[in-house]
Design goal:
The complex is a heterodimer. By secondary structure, chain A is an alpha/beta fold. Chain A has seven helices and eleven strands. Chain A has a single domain, classed as Rossmann fold. Helices cover 29% and strands 25% of the residues of chain A. Helix content of chain B is 43%, strand content 19%. A seven-stranded parallel beta sheet of chain B has the order 4-3-2-5-6-1-7, sandwiched between helices. By secondary structure, chain B is α/β, with parallel strands linked by helices. The chains are: A alpha/beta, B alpha/beta.
């Protein structure tokens, strides 16, 4: 359970083991829109699913998962692989997984907003925000649309994760390089290869989070069977990032 | 096999020890472990498989129920699941994985001692500054978790920069000759 700060700000516990303690108030300020960035295979979708599953199961926070790539059935199957009883939460109306059409932005927005309204969602994950930009015609259009969409998502007052696909070793955390500025927070997931050996290491970094102090160190992370994402805040990263 | 009483006291009294042993002298470490046979031990091996360590620990009288082995070797050639009380680390130089596993075992199993075998092997994989930094970090964690640490090092590496720095971070450096009752 998250610790409430004195100023009345509510806190959302992420359900990611080891993550909440990296924030001053043991979680993300409620209503924050957070960009969750990382290259392929870094665990972004699992992070998003775990965030919603924890909210629905442990915090009584209904959540909407907007999957723009995979079918809801596939998303559910992915979640169930961790031993999470997703169907029960869906049946209880605490979790809603949708796959709206993406090519018409207003229809997409309506579908998302209706879904949030339908279950009175307090958590929202859009997987992936990046995909929306691929349907826009130029850089100006991407920036304008992302700004407007971000602004409207904030009005929903959900604690939101916008999943952003990046390329390896990128210095930006989104396709346009703009989303990180409109987001209240940026969490980056890394999958690094040790220069001398044939193994990969996962780490997480909180780049930014409005409304709370937070750790600025790279934290080792694992994806574990029957648990999901686990962070190790007591451990240190010795590989070069 | 028995360590001298004085050396035995050093082992019990200090939180972090660096044990300098002659190359190819496998008996020295067992002399150290002998007095610890009733303690809960986390044994980190960078060069031996867990079953080889188990046999050695049997010889030293360590109860396997009190022994947790971090094996950095086996998973490089085998996909087997680790047996009970054994954790596989992908490689001896997977330092992040290694420190995660050490911390988890010390935290969860409340081990009395962490034996790290060895700094010399680590120095074949990593440069001196990173070995010194890693060891310093582990010493801090071991103390924070109210455990004790023994790091082994071949005397051939005793003059290496990393070992000189580690000597400053441990509470005591013991030479194998002291264990044999010599000064």
């Amino acid at each position: 359970m998250a610790d409430a700060p004195n100023d009345g700000m509510e806190i959302t516990g992420t359900g990611i083991s080891g993550l909440d303690e990296l924030f001053e108030h043991k979680g993300i300020p409620e209503g924050n829109m957070v960009l969750l960035a990382g290259a392929c295979g870094t665990g972004k979708s699992i992070f998003g699913m775990q965030f919603l599953y924890h909210g629905a199961k442990e915090e009584n926070d209904p959540g909407v998962y907007v999957s723009l790539e995979e079918s809801p059935e596939r998303v559910m199957k992915n979640m169930e692989e961790f031993g999470w009883d997703v169907k029960k939460l869906v049946d209880e109306g605490k979790l809603l997984i949708i796959k709206p059409e993406i090519y018409e932005l207003n229809a997409l927005k309506r579908t998302i907003f209706d879904a949030v309204e339908r279950i009175k969602a307090k958590r929202l994950v859009i997987d992936s925000f990046t995909l929306i930009s691929t349907y826009l015609k130029d850089d100006y259009d991407v920036r304008k649309t992302m700004f407007e969409l971000g602004h409207e998502i904030k009005k929903l007052k959900c604690t939101t994760l916008l999943i952003s696909d990046t390329v390896e070793k990128a210095n930006t955390f989104s396709v346009s390089g703009f989303e990180e500025f409109i987001a209240d927070g940026v969490i980056v997931l890394y999958l690094i290869k040790d220069t001398s050996k044939n193994y990969l290491l996962r780490t997480l970094l909180i780049r930014k989070m409005r409304g709370t102090q937070h750790s600025l160190k790279y934290v080792p992370m694992k994806i574990i069977e029957n648990k999901g994402i686990v962070l190790y805040p007591d451990a240190a990263v010795f590989e070069e990032m | 096999m028995k360590a001298s009483l004085e050396a035995e006291n050093e082992i019990f009294q200090n939180n972090a020890l660096l044990l300098i042993i002659p190359q190819d002298d496998h008996s020295t470490l067992l002399k150290v472990i002998g007095p610890l046979s009733k303690k809960k031990i986390c044994f980190v091996t960078l060069s031996k498989t867990y079953d080889a360590v188990e046999k050695e620990m049997d010889g030293a009288g360590v109860d396997r129920k009190n022994l947790y082995i971090l094996d950095c070797v086996t998973s490089s050639f085998s996909h087997m699941k680790p047996p009970e009380n054994v954790v596989f680390v992908p490689s001896p130089d997977a330092l992040t994985d290694l420190n995660i596993s050490i911390i988890e075992i010390l935290k969860n199993e409340k081990c009395d001692y962490m034996i790290f075998d060895s700094i010399s092997t680590l120095l074949t994989y990593k440069d001196d500054p990173i070995v010194a930094r890693f060891t310093d970090f582990i010493i801090g964690k071991v103390k924070e978790l109210k455990s004790k640490a023994i790091f082994t090092c071949s005397e051939n590496d005793a003059k290496r920069q990393a070992v000189l720095e580690i000597s400053l971070h441990v509470d005591k450096v013991i030479n194998a000759s002291e264990l044999n009752g010599k000064k």
